[in-house]
Fold:
Amino acid sequence: MIEFEQIPFGSGEQVTLPVGLEVEGVRYKEVVIDELCGIDDFNVADKKLGGNSAKGSTVVLARCIQEISGLIPRKKNSESKLEVDYLRRMTLIDRDYLLARIYHLSGREQVCLAGECPRCNRVWEEEAALSDFPVYSWPDDKALGVDFEFKLGIKDPKTDIFQTKGFIRFPMGRDQELMAVIENPAQALDSMLAACITNLGTIEKIDSESVKRLKQRDRLAILEVFQYEFPGLRQWKEVHCQCGKDFEARLDLTSFFGGRNQKKTKY
Ligand SMILES: [Zn+2]
Structure:
């Protein structure tokens, strides 16, 4: 497991991305952002987005990002939008951190932390200060993902041998957009896993069908990787329920923009 370096949450319009946008092998990490304005509400409400919360995030980022040092010069017109392709190629880790920083720059500090106690089912909602959540950066010389040893793995149909050594790449903006339109959460998760497991021993192609054969222990272990081994803004906090149980409540970044009525997909 990689030792994380913690970076300050930060303030102001200069942002250093935890991972960096990779274009032709170079990672660009320094970004200038603008705070939200009425145009962003207008952009997010565009019917063409079809209520897709991930696409909503993409248009907010396309408008609010003003510069990516070394890649995109400072915009002449701050209202213009960046090519969305850059945002689809950006990791979810960087996108989430940018959204949090834009929200913060726009004068919002409090966020809602929510969850449900797994023992007594009491619903937990708490206001928390965004800047209290730690942010972890990813080393520039590390690939955009983590090596992963599956407990049981998947059988290679050609050899009948279970394959257990794999690689899980970071989810990207394009994965999030695709997943957000899938109604069934289990199916959305399978699509995400199929996209992000880019290597599994001798198995040539990982698709939703192969992912369906993953045993529950492996699936849970992968979700733990997403939660604990990926860098970026830590989006959970341990809370203590009245019944005595400690559990993790989560930040909902999709509720920052476009209200709470939009369709949300969690993985
Ligand atoms: Zn409880």
Observations:
- The pocket of zinc ion is lined by residues 117, 119-120, 122, 241, 243, 245 (CB under 6 Å).
